[in-house]
UniProtKB/TrEMBL annotation:
GO BP, sorted A to Z: regulation of DNA-templated transcription
Entry-linked InterPro entries: CheY-like_superfamily, OmpR/PhoB-type_DNA-bd, Sig_transdc_resp-reg_C-effctor, Sig_transdc_resp-reg_receiver, WalR-like, WH-like_DNA-bd_sf
PTM-bearing positions, type 4-aspartylphosphate: D51
Gene3D superfamilies linked to this entry: 3.40.50.2300, 6.10.250.690, Winged helix-like DNA-binding domain superfamily/Winged helix DNA-binding domain (1.10.10.10)
Biological classification of the source: Bacteria, Bacillati, Actinomycetota, Actinomycetes, Kitasatosporales
Pfam families per the UniProt record, alphabetical: Response_reg, Trans_reg_C
Keyword tags: DNA-binding, Phosphoprotein, Transcription, Transcription regulation, Two-component regulatory system
Protein name: DNA-binding response regulator
GO molecular function, one term: phosphorelay response regulator activity
Native source organism of the sequence: Streptomyces poonensis
Length: 220
C-alpha cells in the first residue's frame, strides 16, 4: 500500500513517514498543498494523510478539489484546531476521517488501517484464500496449510499486492508503485528478489512468472 502525507510540519511529517514505513507501507511526503493536490491527483495512492493548515492551498481546498475531480482515495485530515465546526467542514469537503493534533501515533495507525480495510474489502472478508494459502490483510498474518508463516513488512506488502488480485497478472511496475515510495531509485529488480523470497517461504508453485508481463498468484 502506498500513502501520501501532506504536512508542512517537517519533523512531524518525517516522523509519521518513518513509523508508517516500518509498518510496511510505501510513504511519500510533501509539505505544500498544491504539490499535495498534484501528487494525489496522479491516482497512485491508497490513502492520503492531509493537514488542513498548509502553504499554497489549505487541506479543505485540496480535499474538495480531489473529490470534484472524481478521486475517491481515502483522506485522513489532520488539524491543530479543535471544534465541531472544523470537523464538520473537513468531512463536508469529502474527508473520510479526522484527527486533531496532538494525537497518538497508535491511534493514527489504527485509523489508517481502518480506512484501508474499509476501502479494500468493500464489506467482504479481509481474509483471502488461495489454495492452501490464507492471508489476513487486516491482521497482516499469513498461513500456509494452517501453519503461520513469518514475513517481513515488505514481504507482506508484495504478497498483498498479489493476493488482492489473485488470478490476475500484476506487473513489476504495479508492485514497485505500491510497495516502494516515490523516492526509490534503486534497482527495479528488487521486486524479483522479494518474489524469490516469497517463493522460498510459501512454495514456488504459488507465484507464476508471466514473461514480459509480471506475476500471477494462483492455487497451482
Amino acid at each position: 500500500m502506498r500513502l501520501l502525507i501532506v504536512e508542512d510540519e517537517k519533523r512531524l511529517a518525517l516522523s509519521l513517514a518513518k513509523g508508517l514505513t516500518a509498518e510496511g507501507y510505501a510513504v511519500d511526503v510533501v509539505h505544500d498543498g498544491l504539490e499535495g493536490l498534484h501528487r494525489a491527483g496522479e491516482g497512485v495512492y491508497d490513502l492520503v494523510i492531509l493537514d488542513i493548515m498548509l502553504p499554497g492551498m489549505n487541506g479543505y481546498r485540496v480535499c474538495a478539489a480531489l473529490r470534484a475531480a472524481g478521486h475517491d482515495v481515502p483522506i485522513l485530515m489532520l488539524t491543530a484546531k479543535d471544534g465541531e465546526y472544523d470537523e464538520a467542514e473537513g468531512l463536508d469537503t469529502g474527508a473520510d476521517d479526522y484527527l486533531t493534533k496532538p494525537f497518538s501515533y497508535v491511534v493514527l495507525v489504527a485509523r489508517v488501517k481502518a480506512l484501508l480495510r474499509r476501502r479494500g474489502t468493500a464489506g467482504a472478508s479481509p481474509v483471502r484464500v488461495v489454495g492452501d494459502l490464507k492471508v489476513d490483510t487486516a491482521a497482516r498474518r499469513v498461513f500456509l496449510t494452517e501453519r503461520e508463516i513469518t514475513l517481513t513488512a515488505k514481504e507482506f506488502s508484495v504478497l498483498e499486492q498479489l493476493v488482492v488480485r489473485a488470478g490476475e497478472v500484476v506487473s513489476k511496475s504495479d508492485i514497485l508503485e505500491h510497495v516502494w515510495d516515490f523516492a526509490y531509485e534503486g534497482d527495479p529488480n528488487i521486486v524479483e528478489v522479494y518474489v524469490s523470497t516469497l517463493r522460498r517461504k510459501l512454495g514456488a508453485h504459488l507465484i507464476k512468472t508471466v514473461r514480459g508481463a509480471g506475476y500471477r498468484l494462483e492455487a497451482g
